[in-house]
Each structure stands twice: as structure tokens, then as C-alpha cells.
Amino acid sequence: MNVWIFFVSLSLLNLSSGRRIFKTHTEQRVKDSKYRYETAWYNQTLDHFAFTTNATFPHKYLYNDTWWDKDKPGPIFFYTGNEGIIEAFAENSGFMWDIAPEFNALLIFAEHRYYGESLPFDGKIGKDPAKLGYLTSEQALADYAELIDYIKNKNPNAAKSPVIAFGGSYGGMLAAWFRNKYPHVCDGAIAASAPVAIFTSPCDAFGRIVTSDYTAAAENGTCSQNIRKSWAALDRLANQTNNTGIDWINKNWKLCTPFTHPSNVTILKNYLNEMWTNIAMMDYPYPTSFLMPLPGNPVNAVCSKLEGTYSNDTELITHIIQAANIYFNFTGEAKCFNPAEEDDIGADIWDYQACSEMVMPFCFDGINDMFEAAKWDIREYSKDCLRNWNVVPKPNMPNLMYGGRNLKAASNIVFSNGLLDPWSSGGILKNYGLVVSVIIPEGAHHLDLRSTNPADPESVITARKTERKYIRKWINAAYTSKAKRRSYHVP
User: Fold this and answer.
1) Given 59, 112, 319, 445, which residue is catalytic?
2) Do the Cβ atoms of 417 and 193 come closer than 8 Å?
3) pTM summary value
4) Residue 445 among the catalytic residues
5) CA dist., res. 454 & res. 77, Å (int)
6) Which residues are within 8 A (CB) of 243 and not within 5 positions of it... i.e. 6 or more apart?
7) Are 79 and 137 in contact (CB under 8 A)?
8) Rounded distance, CA 43 to CA 174, Å?
9) Is 65 annotated as catalytic?
10) Residues 273, 348, 418: CA angle, nearest 5 degrees
């Protein structure tokens, strides 16, 4: 690989107040990844939209030019990094690597500001509103535009390269918005599992899709029914006299840090809330190792432990433990269970984004879904955000900035959605003019963005063919447009 550039997660955050915030990603680093890339840095502008500061920060990106045709030149496949370390997204976006040789493409994976190592203020950010205020999707999109401009200026061979954006989850949202906001920079976008319309979707839709995954995985819906019953069963156990239920929970869950009070059971319920959602998001037909190592078809695997009718609370929760063990201890290496363990992808600051512009409404009723009832209350949500981050949410900001489902001015975007994925509740599910919707009935969270696998369902194979067709179309159109501009002259 030639060094040609000069200068170097929808997990659930459960807060003590009860506010629930879903992250859109699940990616973790891949052990022994087969993908190879170089790491580079750019001195990125902190504020693209005002003239009050000239501050910059180190912006990290990865690249691979193994297959790049420098003479034509080949296109740039650009991953619009989302809420986590960029290596995790590079290693879990195999589709880009699979098709790079076919298109003679240069691969670039750009890290999102405030995540990973792309930290303004030397990482000394804390909860200072004056420092956090530069963490917005709009600033991130401008980062990507400036980075591409830098790469093209530093490398003359890249100057005429078409740019195709790729992204999954929040990264998919950014890819679509990047094409919309910077069509002169980005020639097309593959937006996988991108819930660009989640901000105005019914708040209960997400939970209903998760529930439907579990309902379909066991006869007569027994799996989702047992999960629905487990919340009250845990409460009853926790509130048994003389801490006998707490003692049973400590012993049978093998907790690393034993519970001492009935209220501690909230920690366990929060973990299970996150777990059921993550498993639905990661319901791939083959083993994966994102947030946790999981078997193929993990929803079926956990539901195989929850198919029965149980006569008492301890019997039900014993089976919940067996199901949960597939998630937190599939490898058998865990010696104890820590439900308070945080993910290590580096996405904690997503909570700030969810409190500022990424305000995604979620609610559950415990009847049409398998979760504990929880209302969506923007007033309480806002109070909590003000208390935690000293910021007042702007729920309508993404729609004002990017249009939501209003795509009349958009073009050259493929939105893909798997129907097993709860984030499809906020996805684009039909075509609009030059915007294409690809539906993957057997697909979980951005399955199409992953590398090809022998276990792939036919629907994702077809989806990738469609995406490659449009990528080629956009690239050819970009070459044609550039050729016309070069041949044009004023008589």
C-alpha cells in the first residue's frame, strides 16, 4: 500500500432517571481482522460555520489504496463514520472491501468528531457546553467535505475521483445527508439501516418490531410472552421478605457485584432491555462478535430457552438466565455476570447528541410489545437532558436540517432496510424519484453492509446487486459530467 497522504454503535442507554436512549450501532473491533488499512490524520476545522475561532483538532481516518486505479482515476468509497471508534466500522463494513476491487476504488473511513481519537480540546471536554456545542451532525458532515477536499488537493490523481458515501445506522443517516448537503462533493450514497425518519415515527414502532422478532421465533409466541412476564416476576422476587429473593437473584445470576436492595433489580432490567434489543439488531444468519460474541440466528437461540409455560417466578427467571447466558457468556469465558458493564466502543457521548439534536422518541406499552410500559414525555426528557448535559433538546432540528421523509430534492441515494431490524421503523421504505428503497425481509441491522457470507439469504444477495448497479450508474454519470465540463469552453 502506498502512503500517499502527507500528514497523518442501537444499544440502549438506561439512565437512573428512566430516560431511554438507543444507540444505532453495535459494532466492536474484530479480532484478527482480515482487513488492512493505513491510519492518517488531518488538522480539522473545529467550527465550519462561524468566524469566531480558528481552532482545529486531530481528525483520524483510515485508508486502503490497494485496488485504486490512480490513472482513470478510480472512485473514492468514503465511510461516514458514526458514534464510535472508526476501526470498528472499517472492520464491520465488508461490502465496501468486497466491491473495491471491482470498482478499482480507494477506501477511506473517516472518524466522527468527538469519538475514538478524533477529540477536540485534547479530549478535555467533560460536560462543558462551550466545548460540546461543536458536536453536531452538521459539523461532522462539514468535516467529511473538508477532508475529501484535502485528500483531492494533496493527491492530484484523486482530484477527479467520484465519491460514493457509505454508512450504516447513524453513519447511514450521515451518508444520505452528506449526499443531500454536499452533492458537489458526494456523487451517491448507500445508506444502510439509516433511520432518517425516526424523529417523527410512532414512538412505539421500534419496540413492536423487536417484539415481532421474538414472537415469530417460538410457537404460539411463547418467547415474547415469557419475556413480557419476566419484568413483574423480577420485581416480585426482588421484593420478597428478608431479601430472600435478592439472595436468589445473586446466586442464580452469579452477579459479580451482589445486589443488596430490591431497587437494584432495576440495573438487571435495564440490562435485559438492552440485551433483547441488541440481539434483535444482530439477528444475523451466521455467528458474529459485535457487542458480544453470538451464534447465528441468535433470536432463535435465546427463544429456544423460553418456549415453555412456567409455573412460578423462579422457574421463569431460570429460563431467562439461560437465554441471557447466550448473550453475555456465549464463549463460556465469563466467571460472573456484570449487568452494569458498559460497552467499550467509546459511544457514551452519544447521550449528549441524543439530548441535543438526535432526539428519537421511544415508548412501550407492555401489551403490543414485550417491554415494561414506558411513556414518551418530551418535557421530562428535556428536564433530564438539562440536568445531565445543560442542554435543551431541539427535537425538530434534524427534520428542519435534512427533511426527514421529504425527499423531493434528494437524489442518488439507496436506502436499505432489513425487516428484522427495529430501526426500519424510522427508515425510508419506498422509492421517491431518484431515491431508491431496498427492502431485505430476512435482514437484521445493515446486513447488506457486511461482507458476503455463504449463509446470506437471497434477499441480501439481491440487495447488494442492486446497490452495485446504482454505484456503477452514479460513477459513470460522474465521469460523464466531468468530461462534459472539461470539453466546455466559451466561444
Assistant:
1) 445
2) yes
3) 0.91
4) yes
5) 25
6) 260
7) no
8) 21
9) no
10) 55
Burial of 130 (C-beta count, 10 Å sphere; 0-12/13-18/19+) = exposed
User: Residue 34, Cα to own-chain centre: how many angstroms?
Assistant: 22
Q: With CA atoms as reference, report the closest residue to 93 among 189, 168, 32, 173.
A: 168
Tell me the residue type at 289. Answer: S
Asked whether the predicted pLDDT for residue 7 surpasses 90, the reply is no
What tens digit of pLDDT does each residue of 389-411 get? Answer: 999 999 999 999 999 999 999 99
Task: Please give the single-letter amino acid code of residue 17.
Answer: S
CA angle 86, 143, 12 (to 5 degrees): 45
CA distance 19 to 385: 9
- Judge whether 403 and 397 are in contact, CB under 8 Å: no
- Mean pLDDT across 362-366: 96
The 10s digit of each residue's pLDDT in 110-125 is 999 999 999 999 999 9
* Distance separating alpha carbons of residues 60 and 44, to the nearest angstrom: 9
Q: Give yes or no for a contact between 6 and 155, defined as CB atoms under 8 angstroms apart.
A: no
To the query of whether residue 311 is one of the catalytic residues in this protein, the response is no
Backbone φ, ψ for residue 445 (5° rounding): -65, 115
Neighbours of 43 (CB within 10 A): 11
Per residue in 146-195, pLDDT (tens digit) is 999 999 999 988 999 999 999 999 999 999 999 999 999 999 999 999 99
Please check whether residue 223 is in contact with residue 303, taking contact to mean a CB–CB distance below 8 angstroms.
yes
Nearest-angstrom CA–CA distance, 465 and 197: 25
Q: Choose, from 313, 343, 421, 456, the residue flagged as catalytic.
A: 421
Cβ atoms of 154 and 465 within 8 Å: the answer is no
Which residues are CB-contacts of 475 (< 8 A; sequence separation ≥ 6)?
A: 75, 103, 162, 164, 187, 188
Cβ atoms within 10 Å, residue 466? 14
**pLDDT per position as a tens digit, 467-489:** 999 999 999 999 998 776 654 44
What's the Cα-to-Cα distance from 15 to each of 55, 264, 385, rounded to whole Å?
33, 13, 11
Q: Which residue of the set 9, 11, 169, 201 is catalytic?
A: 169
Each residue's pLDDT tens digit, 35-84: 999 999 999 999 999 999 999 999 999 999 999 999 989 999 999 999 99
Output the nine-digit C-alpha cell for 376: 414518551
pLDDT of res. 482: 74
